[in-house]
Every structure is written in structure tokens, then in C-alpha cells.
Queue: 2 jobs
Job 1
Amino acid sequence: MKNNKLSKAGNIHFVGVGGIGMSGLARVMLEMGHKVSGSDLETNSLTKKLESIGAKIFEGHKSENILSGTRLLVYSSSVSKDNPELLEAKKKKIRISHRSEMLAEVFNTRKGIAVTGTHGKTTTTSLVSVMLEKNGMDPTVVIGGEVDDFKGNSKLGKGLYAVAEADESDSSFLNLKPLYAIVTNIEMEHMDHFKDMDDIMRSYRAFINNVKRPGMVFYNNEDENCRAAVAGYKGRAMSFGFLNTADIYPLDIRMDCFKTSFRCVYKNRMLGTVELSIPGNHNILNALAAILAGLHAGLEFSGIAKSLKGFSGAKRRFQLKAEADGVMLIDDYAHHPTEIRAVLDACRNWNAKRLVAIFQPHRYSRTKFLASAFGRAFKGVDLLILTDIFAASEKPIKGVSSKNILDEAKSNGISGVMILKKEKIASYIDRIKKSGDMIVVMGAGDIKKVADQISLMMEGQTPQKTQTLTELKGLIKGRVLSNQNLKSHTSFKIGGPADIWADPADYNDLRKLLAFTRKEKINIFVIGNGTNVLASDEGFKGLVIRLGSKYFRQVSIKGRNVTVGAGFSLPGLVSLCCSRGLRGLESLVGIPGTVGGAVYMNAGGWASPMYKNIGDFVVSVKVMDRKGHVKILKKDKLKFEYRHSNIGDCIILEVILKLEKAVKRDLLSSCARFLKMKRQKQALDVPSAGCVFKNPQDSQFTCGQMIDMLGLKGKRIGMAEVSTKHANFLINRGGATCRDVKNLAEFIRGKVKDNYNVDLDLEIKVI
């Protein structure tokens, strides 16, 4: 950055950080090296991504969210004046900036390309950004949608160009001073901010006049208001459109499903063919605008065309969410009549037997002013499902509801129209969908959750499970997945799918998961690396929790004390302690579990006074009970026995171990000896769960010795086999099932009982 206020900002706090524009800016600040914190009413996928790269995120707005050392607070237009964090910043005399001012500090120091307009901003910004990126320009990018090429909605580039959406909704785009400006269209919109159409036009003209000389404005020649806005402009301008009256236009347009192609003519010169992977006439105009920007940035047409062909669209811009059994599900951000018409026009590239539109109106003011236009926009759909208005930051307006649109739709000949609560839409669609349907979910609010639910149902999930998955994904910051195959998460390589899998991000996430499962009466199982687990062939009917995030894998060493998270790798801990000259864990080498699992099961080494079980070194264990309460269990409250502890159904979070000082070289040598012995005597190179049976306390023989003396080494049922190296190891010879292992284990137990009168207990956990 060149000598601006931002370079001295210190910690930056974003109020409303979960918004698409705010989260993009926050990511750029993180990539610039700033410390970033932020808050929003609810966390979402965007805040989760920010947290994963170093941001401190708070759920809810509180004055204490303003961290010590904060030098700048950034807010969006949706933040109310009485927001406690805003008030706290004023009280502490912290610099306060609107989101657009912050964007301007990044944008105005570069060669800026700003994209504005009532519709098409996100797709056009994405097209321009990907075009520059793919052609080696390494731009800085802030987009109002997520793009796969950037793994999100923004990036900090090292190149000269910056590309951003210019938000006209509150006239904040007037803070930007671009070199190139793209105006996609101008319509009556955002009447909560503007007085009338004249007011809107004044704002756009002021934006156009902000373009730096010798820059240029690229405008939509098809749009009367765009032409009027540019008419008095004294700088350079070029137009894009469908007719040869525009500076750049298409010929020979061809559309087939998601594929669109046309020949591109620029200043009466044929440049070549453009192929797009995004449908609709509106996207042809967006592509033409991007081509103009690319040509004036010095790119060759061949490079531009290649990059546009590879662009598959931004998320929620005619995004194919699911396709199964002849049913196609499309998710789109459209929330204005013109956008809806464009989406439905693109749908006509397919020969759907039935077009089902699901729409969530966005803002009371928009619904009030445009109800009639909404009613006309849905003309041609076979079934229209409306849901309640998403208010955004607005208060309800008396007499304004989704029924206004329903009445207008009926008056325009749409007989199949209804209003449903969001929570009921997915299950209704699941009941009535049939092969040949195209289902389009539209809206700028939280209607995306409905698209997610329908998508899950199309994958075969039940409505109840779909609802559960959707709620959990919105509840925690960590990952929530469905149908995770336990075969890939256990060392035995056996097991069917877990209904739900969750990786909580921190203690708070775990607490929320436990509260949710208590309320919904869902079974849970906490898994580490799955080294002592035999999973059912049918899978696990409930929620499997793995403490695999960085939060649960922290470790610190002070003197002889080792504080380590439950999710930390046991082999990694053994190696770390040996490298620090701390003795005690060497005999655990080769056990591929986690620290939490090792302590819970009191994992042990070999039968020698020098090498004990891990429980012998435990000073304290931090646990969370099933009600979400965190407590510390100190040594005098802990009881460790052979392959057992008294921790019960509490979940281990963190452990403190006290080890002995020793010579690093000797410890590493000891580890090497133990590992060599284990490799000679144990089946470490094939899938297994380690020792299957606990050694009986009142027998002169170990399990392995008894099984060996019975001549059962090599005994196989199905693809489960008794190891020829260690008889207490049952191994998976490839394709073994849980049933195979259980049948083999029962066979062994019967033989041992008949011959030695000893009852063998399982050491492994069967789920």
C-alpha cells in the first residue's frame, strides 16, 4: 500500500463480517498482514473460512468484542447506529470507516475496474477477475459472490489491477475512483435509499464522473438509462450490446443448456468466437463488458476467450446444485423482477417438462414498489412457491407481504401459486417432484438453506435428516458432513456410513453439538484416529464427532510438563517428547491413535517396569461432560486400570502429562528398538484395530498365547484373519466386513472358553 491510513491500522474489527462484501474485505486485510476480528449475528460459511485463516470471529454483537489494540472499526450499511460495538468504538475514539471507504483505500491506489449496475454485478466482476487472473495479471479482487478460482469472494494480488463490485444501493460507490467502470444496467431499485428515478440517475452520473482520466466507461447500449447516464459524460466511453450500434456485439448466438457461443465483433472487426459455460442472454452482455475491459487492459483476445470459456460461474448465479432422477435443481441470487426474468429465460435452454420456481422476496420496500413487476416476471412458470419476506435490515410495512406478489402472479395468469413457510418447502418439493422438472430457487436472503435441503433430499436424505444437517451447518463453525464412510476413518478399514459427521472448531462448537444432540435425542460417538474401533457394516445411526481441528491439536511444553490437546497425534507426541529429552512414552511408538483416545483407554507399552501405561504420567485431564460443562479432573480423582479409565462418558479435551528428563539420543534409540520389535511381532502393515481382546487378569497366559496355542493363527472367516505374527491381532485381508470380524472373534472366544475356561472381553470398541 502506498502511504495511507490503512497501513497504520493495527487490529481491524469488522461489524457484520458475515456479509459477502465485508467478508471479502476482511480476507484481503488478513492477506495484507493485518490482525482481523469481526462479529455478526450468526456465523456462516464465510466467517468459518475467515477463522480458518486467522481471523477472530464473534457470534453476536457485544461491546467486549472490540479487542485491545483495535485501531479501526469497519461497518456496513446494514449495521444500526445503536450497535454496541459501534458505540464502544466511538467511546474509545477508535477510527470508524464504512465498508466502501475501506474498499476505496485498497482500490483507489491501483488501476481499478469497478462494476456497477442494478443486475449482473457479481457475474461481470467474476468474469473480469478470472480473466485477469488466468492471463497472469494477478489482480486484487473483491466480489459479491464466491468463485471457485479464488476459493472464496476475494484475494490480494500483486498485480497493478484491482477489480470490485461498486455498490450503488446506498451511493457508497461514489467513494471509488476507478480507471475503468462497467455499468451493466440502471433500474428503479433501492427505494429505501433513493427518492425517485432522477435521484438514482444523479448518483450514477456522479459515479461515472469519478472515472480517472484517461480511463473509460463501458456501458450497456441495450439499456436506455445507461445511455442517458453516459450522454453528458465528457470522458471516454464504449458500449456493449446485441446490435451493431454498439462498439462490441455478438453474431451467430447459439445456446444449448449451460453452453453459449457467439462470434464477437469489436469496432466492426471480427475478433473470433467466444464460448461460455454460463447460460442466458444476460450473460452474453456480461461477457462483452468483460471483453472490453480485458482489451483495454492490454490482453489478447485469444487469452480473453480462453479464460471466459473456463469460467463456470459464481456461486448462487444459476448454480447447478443437484441433478438426479431427471430432476434439475438451480440456485440463484435473483431478487429483482429483471433478474428473475433473466433466470427464467435461461431456463428455457432446457426442455423441462415442468418449471417450478421458489422465491423469497427480499425487503419490504422492494416488495411494495415492485409487486406488480414481480407478478409479471414469473409468467410461464408451472408452479410458483413463495415464502415470507426476508426483511434484511428493514422493519415490516403494514399491508406488505408475499401475498402482494401472489395476487399479482394470479392476475397474470399463473394459477399454480402458493405461499409456504421455508421450513416446509423442501419436504413439499420432495413429495411432488417428478422426472423432467427444473426447480429454481431464487432470492437474496436465507432461501439458500432451502436449496441445500432440497439438494440433500435429491441425494436420498430423509426430510428429517436434511433438516438436521441444515441446522447443524448453521449452528457450528466447524465442518458438518453426511454419510461419511467410516471405512476411511478407522484403521480396520471396515464400516458403513455415519449419518452425520462433525469436526467442531472449538469448545463452543462442541458444546453446541452436545446441546443439539440432547435436544434432538441423537446418538453420538467421539472418534479419534479410529485405531481401536470396529464400525458396523450398516454404519452409525447418529452423529460422529472428531476433535480434529487445530484448536484440539495444540501442544506446549514447560519443563517436564506437557499440555496437549485431545486431537494431537500420539506418534507425533512420542516423537516430540523424545526430541525434547522427555522420557516415558517411548513404548507407545507405533500406536497410530490420538492423545485423547490413548488416555481414555489408558494405552500402554510393553510389560516392563521401565515403560508404563500413559495414565501413569497424567497430571490432569480437562473434559467436557455431556451437558457441555468443562471441568478439570486431577490425578487424585482419576483412576487408570488396564485398558480402562474412570473418565466415563465425558469427552477429553486436553491432557497434562509429567514426564522424566533424559538424554535425547537415548530416547530416540529406545523408540527405534521398540518400533523394530513391534514390526517383528505385530501386524502393523495391514488394516487392523490392534489387540482385539483384553488380557485376562487371572490367567497365566495372555490372549495371544492362548489363541496361538490353540493353533488359530491364520484362521480366517470371510476376509477377517487371525494374524500369523500376533494372535491377538485380527486383520483385514481386503474387503472384510464387521460381521466377518465379529464371527471370527466369537469363534475365538468359544475356543478359549472351551479349552481354558477363560472369558475374553473385547478391547476394541464396536459401534
Job 2
Amino acid sequence: MRYKVTLEQVFKYIIWLGLAVVLFSPLYLNRGLFFPYIVTKTIAFNVAIEIMLLAYLLLAWKNKKYQIRVNLVVFLFAVYILLTFVSSLLGDNFYRSFWSNNERSEGILLLLHLFVLLVIMSGFLRQFRDWLKVFDLFFLASLLQGFIALGQFWGLPWILASSGEQRLAGTIGNAGYMAGYLMFAIFLGIFLIAKKKQIYWKIYYLAGIFLSIFIVIFTETRGAWVALGLCGLAVIVYLLFYYWSRAWLKILGVTIIILAMVALLLLWANKNSSFVANNRILNRMTEVSLNTRTAQNRLIAWQSAYLGFKDRPILGWGYENYYQPFDKYFNPKIYRHEGSVVWFDRAHNLIFDRLVAGGILGLGSYLAFLILPFCYLWRYYFKKAEHKNKYFLPVVFSLIALAYFIQNLFIFEALVIYVPLFMVLAFVGLYAPYYQVRIFDRLSFRVVVALIWLVAIIPIVYLVNVKPLQANMELFSILVGKDAKVEQKIDLFKSLLARDTYGNQEYRKQLHFFLEDFKNDLDTTIKNNPEQVEKIINQYSPTIIELSNFTKAQINRQIEENPYSASNYLLAMKYNNFVFTRIKRFDILAENTKLFNQAKTLSPKRQHIYFELGYTYLHLAQALKTTGQDDLAQEAYQVAISQFEFALSLNDHNFESYKQLIFANILAGYNESAINLYTLAKNTGVAVNEITVLSQIIATAEFADNTEMIQYFSDKLKSSNQID
């Protein structure tokens, strides 16, 4: 007898396939994209959700049993999205709040897709056995992720190298995310061990759990270690009191706890020993101090968030807008050296991120979404007499939520964390109240909604996924296309920016870098071919003019689209300074004063904007000097030096600020000041590559034709080389 597949079954198969795509999404990676670790997963997730929604609505049309069900979890997240939407509308940049960017790929758009995932899971997965299948799919995906990370640990040449270098990151691309993702797998594995009777299943889950624990350790994520340690200890304590009845199991549990505590005490007591100091993992475990760079950065980010929250305490700044209070309350101490990370768009803390984005209402609604469903889970088990002695399910799932919460006090979420989190919350929603929405019972409503989505899905898939993906791929082809002609790359830039996608703010910065690289390469070509200077200039002059004008127009658009970002004004200042060094148009430099004032209003203590204005006046001074206007040149030098001095005053333990001020004094001919600054900088005790810095100082002195400084710092360089 032939098996007949009904239309209803087809819809179910599509939903199951979509769930598999979603659960395996952390494994997806296309290296041919800009921000490949994020964008690849997000595009796959979005498309899967959009197709699943169509199948689910059609299924609900065919069978009333699968109509939309509004339980507490769905309701609470809907409230959170509504409040986020309102706060973002009242914020300064709703477009960014809604669409986000390539680097994060979050925004309200992702929240809406996650909401749809909740609705589908809550309405489609109604049997406990269905949820066990979902957990098994997730566990299998995590196991594959663990094997990839294990290959990275072993250094297998045919396995993708970890983007975290020694810290294992798998295809997730971030060690912190990797740790958070695998913690879900560890505790779900514990749950599944108890639900499967066959010994081979138990061995399978146990092996996966140990693999995940091993990988979490070698992600070197301390927040995850704390979360895993505390919640793992809670599991053992629970098993001792409520689950393990045999004496040998109780002895084993107590022994594990005692050994763990003794090991930690010994480790801490010997943290200064060579054994601990020379071991990367052990050293990181004992490196717990508020004085570490990571801890200081977190505290500074949290402080900016708190001050921003005080400005807008009720509804916050809007989703994805943390960079605004961070700029406004920028702490100069976070800028320690040239390579410091100084542009933050997250507070690296679940509480502060939600406070900035949505204020008290946003944070309160999100915490209610995380906590209230578990209250009803426990209430259900308290009422069921047969469960009173064990509470295994609520214990394990509550510890999953607790582990998530603890780790996210030190990091922020991403899609790879949201997927298992929403899976767990949708499952817990089985035990929460349901609310009757009468309109969902009507066939006419289900038909209309299904038909609307059937018509809308293709344009939505294109606008949300295909169009941004095309722009992203075009940028990547520019970045890696070594053999492509400059004119072809300019056309690609025009094409991708004309698509007008949410990535344009990122793409325009890449356009500016492209202009700088092209012009620097051209300068090198001219320098190496002095006999062909005129020919080279004639050949590339039209291209340079076209590219410069296009870049200028795009930077102006950059500011128009987001006038609340200090980095956009700084980008415009950099462009003007770059162009002035080539064409010496004084009106370009005059514009920088206006841009500086706008950037200063947004971020008054950010050293970089003072650096850039200092460069502006240095360029002006050099131009005046070459035309014989020495008095005016000295005035310009004085203004430049005053900007670098103010930047240094913001943080006098930053060698980069000293270095910029030394450069300015050498160019101005203030040799004694340059020497004194170098001596003072050395006495700050800031770690610096002295040979590199001295080489840069000598190069500046050579540019200024300052013989005294060339000689002085060359002697310093010789002494450093002899010491080395």
C-alpha cells in the first residue's frame, strides 16, 4: 500500500526542516561575506523563520488544532518588543534600532523573527516527545560544534582555525559566545540522560557533555567558568539530596565537591607559582582582579551605561543605540594605546544593555520574560504530588536560565545564544498560562493572515535577506579582489551603496579606507618611477577625482543618516585631512573646525577628535610654511599643539598621546619640548615598543628636516638596539 502524503503533512515537514535549520544555524559559515560569523547565521535563520511562518499559517488554516496560542512566554516577549519599538521610535536613530548592522545583525528585526520562532514552537510543539526531538537536534548540533572546536584545539590543518587564536571559537567565531552556547548543551544533556533509558543514549549524552565542558574550559571565558561552576555544583547538590539514593553515589558526589573546593583553594594559594603562571588556563582562572584590562573596560562600559540610563530612565535610548551614551560619557582611561578598542556598541552586561536600550520598562519587561515562566514551571511541579520528591525538570531548566544570566553579566547576546534560550523558554511555556484570543478561532482570520503572508513572503525575503546579502557580497569581492581594476571596484562600491541597505554605514567606512589605500599605493608607484610621474598622474588623475568626489558625497550622506555618531564626524575630518595633504585646499580644513565642534558635543572627552583637529592644524602649518608664511605657520603649530596637549591631559598614561605631541613639537621646531616629553613619557611606565616609537619619531624629524632631532633620537635608537 502506497503512503499518501497530505498537504498538512507537507506543512509539518517544512516546519520540522525549518527548526533543524534554525538549531543548526550556529554551524553555518560563509567566509565570502563581510562579518561572516554573524551574517551567515542571521540570513539562514531569517529565511528559515520566514518560510516556517508561511508553513505554520497554512497548517493553522488547514487544522484548527495548530492555531496561534498565546501563552505567558509569547505575551511577555510581545510586551518587550512593543516597549522596545516605542523606545526606539522616541530614540535618535530608529533605522539603526530596527535594522542594526552587519556586525551585530540584531535590531528589532531579529526580535520579530525570534518572536515568530516562539509563536511557532508554542503552537506547533505541543507534545513532550516532540520537545525531546528538538532537544536532540540541538544536542547533535552542539556536538558537531564541539568536534570542530576540538579540531581547533588539536590544530588539525583541515579544520577552520579558531578566530579566537588559542581560545576555541568553532564556527561561532567568538569564544564567549561559544562558551554560552555549549552551556545550554551541557545542561540539556543532563536532562536528556534522565529521559532516555537505553545505555547507549546515556553514553552518547555523557560523552557530549564532557566534550562541551572541555571546550568551555578552553574558550577561556571566565564568566562562563563561573556560571558553569556554580550551576554544576548546584546540580551535584541537588542529586545528592533528591536523586542519588545509593551510598556510593552520595560518596562520589561529596568527593567531587570537596576535591573541587580543595583544587580551587590550592590554585588560588599558588597563583604566583611558575606552574600556574606558565599555564594559560590556570593563570587565567586566577587572574581575577578589578585592575585587569578586561575588568577595567567592563567597569568603564557599565559606568557609561549607567550615566546614559540616568539621562533617559523610563524608556532608554532605543535599541542598538548604546554607542550614544558611550560616546557622551566616554572615559579617556579606556584608551591606553594605539590598538585599544575604543568604539563600544554594547555595555557587555545584560542588565545595563537593557537599561540603556529600553530604560526601566525595557529591563523590567525583559527580566519578566526570563523569570516569570519559571515561576509557573515550579508552581506546576509543586502542585503535582508525584513530582514533589524530585523536581528534576524545573531544577535543570532553572539552572540553564541561571547559567545564561550569570555569563551575560559579563558579555552580550548574539543569535547563537538567542536560539537555545528561546527554545528553552518556549518549552517552559508549556507550563505557563494560556490566554484565549477569540479572533484566532475564526477560520476567516486564519485564512486572511495566511494569504497576506503568502503574498508578502517573497518581497520580504528579498528586502530582509537577499538585497542586504548582495551588497555584503559585493563589498567582500572588493576587499579580496586583488586583480580587479580600480574602476571596477569603484563601480562595485557605487552599486552596493545604491542598494541602500542597513550596511551602508559600515560600507562607507570601507570606501574611505579604499580611497586611502589607493592613493597611498599610487604615491608609492610615483616614488618608485620618477621618470614616469607625469604619465602616471595623467593616467590616474580622473580616477582619483571621481573616487574622491564620490567618497565625499557618501561621507556627507553618512552624517545625514546618523548625525548622532561621533565616529561619523571623525570620519569626515579624516577624509578632509587626507584630501588636504594632496590638494591643499584651505576651505577643506575650515570645515574640520565645524565637524570638530559637532563631534565634541557628542563625545567631549574622546581623544581622537582632538588628535584629528591637531592634524588639521599641522597640515595647515606645513602648507603655510612652504609658502613662506612662517608667522602664520607658528600660530597654526601652537593651535595643533594645544589640541594634542588637551588630549594628553585626558589620560596622561597613554603613550600614544605623548607620541602625537612629540611629533607636533618636532614639526614646529620645539626640540627641547619634544625631548622633555619623551623623557616624561618614558617615566610613566607605560609599556611601549621603544624601537618602533623611536623609528616613527625619527621619520617625523626627517620629514621636518630637523637635523637635531634626527641625531638625538637616532642615538636613542642605537642605545635601545644595543640593550636588546
